[in-house]
Design brief:
Endonuclease I-creI, about 15% helix, about 25% strand, hydrolase activity, acting on carbon-nitrogen (but not peptide) bonds, in linear amides, FormamaseFmdA, Acetamidase/Formamidase, FmdA_AmdA
């Protein structure tokens, strides 16, 4: 250790489209060819593009967010062979470091237009918006959300091993049933295999076509392998135990975040970035059976921004929506209400609703499920750290607060203010936790 340089097993290019780089892919499938090989016990560096493959630019327009092509996203680095890994083993992934590229010291947070991706609060905030964040060491600031500075808990949004053919069939069957059962819902509830803009690494045309027809989209995390879990505490020093389903594991990683709030509520809600992740890999033989593991488990690392217990304001939300409708033990409705409470609170200092929505997605916000036992109301909380602001946001000050000039986040060309729909979700008859609406 320390006597030789850490090997870079994957390099990416900013000068070539992501879909032309054979060491990247944007589907889960067991037949995607290996992009490199890693020894059991080896530590390697892996370069990653941002999750959109470079579609979002460092400027003051949200045109790119509004028009982002969501069939091209989640370009993952890999898959990598981990020598000796076999089905039934566990892959112990220890994240040693995550950093942005030195010549790309910035990231972005986006709110997708409701007609193109949407987000957790899109029935109320349907417009596209964007904030650019500048990195200075461990800290970040944004010209689009002023008077805020905080340290990032840098982490990958996606990591996992490839599914076996059997596991892939479980995913596709399970999600197809959900799609079929919810034809009346006014939005997508899952994404079936989609050949359009499939990127399968170095696969030849025939194999690429097969993967396009069968491969699972990378948008959701799945219990059998983790994948896109967006867990902010999978940061430096954390250890993740991943089930192995195919020979060589076929590990992939991507969607790096400089920071993220619990829930990543705007969907493109972390501070998304391109960067380099350093990982140590170890194979634990027969680990799945020995631990009776049904889903990945992890141990957080020792690195995390520290705020004292008394340096947060916690907001409560319950499963009664903003229109007064009672939902039964719906944690997602409760967390939506918690988010809206924070937006209402910070609005008094001069921030717009969209600036706050962006901030709650990417800042070190603590979200918790407080109570799920007392029918009919689930309760969730959201902790807002006081010290990320350069002015006092305490309740004593908020009572008489004067609004500051907070500028604006970026909107699409010709738009100076995002839409706020006060009647959003009002006609919902059945809740699936997302305020989704059944249509007669």
């Amino acid at each position: 250790m320390g006597k030789t340089a850490i090997r870079t097993v994957c390099e990416v290019s900013f000068d070539k489209p992501a879909a032309e780089q054979p060491q990247l892919h944007n589907r889960w499938h067991p037949d995607i060819p290996f992009a490199g090989s890693i020894k059991d016990g080896e530590t390697v560096k892996i370069e990653c593009l941002d999750w959109t493959g470079g579609q979002i630019l460092n400027n003051d327009s949200a045109d790119d967010v509004k028009n982002v092509d969501l069939t091209k996203v989640h370009y993952l680095s890999g898959p990598f062979e981990v020598e000796g890994a076999a089905p039934g083993d566990l892959l112990l992934v220890e994240i040693m470091d995550v950093q942005p590229f030195q010549d790309q010291p910035w990231g972005f947070t986006g709110i997708f237009d409701k007609s193109n991706g949407g987000g957790f609060l899109d029935e109320i905030y349907p417009s596209a918006a964007k904030a650019i964040w500048d990195f200075e060491g461990i800290y970040c600031t944004s010209r689009h959300i002023p008077h805020v500075k905080f340290a990032g808990l840098i982490h990958p949004g996606i990591l996992g091993c490839a599914p076996s053919p059997e596991v892939l069939d479980i995913w596709n069957t399970r999600e197809a049933k959900l799609i079929a059962a919810n034809k009346l819902v006014g939005r997508d509830v899952a994404l079936p295999p989609q050949p359009i803009n499939i990127h399968a690494g170095s696969a030849d045309p025939e194999l690429k076509a097969k993967i396009g027809k069968e491969g699972a989209r990378t948008i959701p995390g799945r219990p059998e392998h983790g994948g896109n879990c967006d867990i902010k505490n999978l940061s430096r020093g954390s250890k993740v135990y991943l089930p192995v389903h195919v020979n060589g594991a076929k590990f992939s990683v991507g969607d790096l975040h400089f920071s993220q709030g619990d829930g990543e509520i705007s969907f493109c809600g972390a501070i998304e970035m391109a960067g380099i992740i350093t990982i140590n890999f170890k194979v634990i033989k027969n680990g799945v059976a020995d631990l009776a593991l049904k889903s990945p488990i992890y141990i957080p690392g020792p690195v995390e921004p520290q705020f004292g217990p008394g340096r947060y304001i916690y907001f409560e939300g319950f499963s009664v929506d903003q229109h007064g409708k009672q939902h039964y033990m719906d944690v997602t409705v409760a967390y939506r209400q918690t988010s809206l409470r924070v937006i209402e609170y910070l609005r008094r200092f001069g921030y717009s609703d969209y600036q706050i929505y962006l901030l709650l997605s990417c800042a070190p916000i603590q979200g918790h499920v407080a109570g799920i036992v007392d029918i009919p109301n689930a309760c969730t909380t959201m902790g807002l750290p006081i010290d990320i602001f350069d002015f006092d946001i305490s309740p004593a000050t908020a009572i008489t607060a004067k609004k500051l000039d907070m500028g604006t986040c970026a909107f699409e060309t010709g738009v100076t203010e995002g839409k706020v729909l006060t009647d959003g979700g009002k006609n919902s008859e059945i809740s699936f936790g997302g305020g989704m609406t059944y249509k007669e």
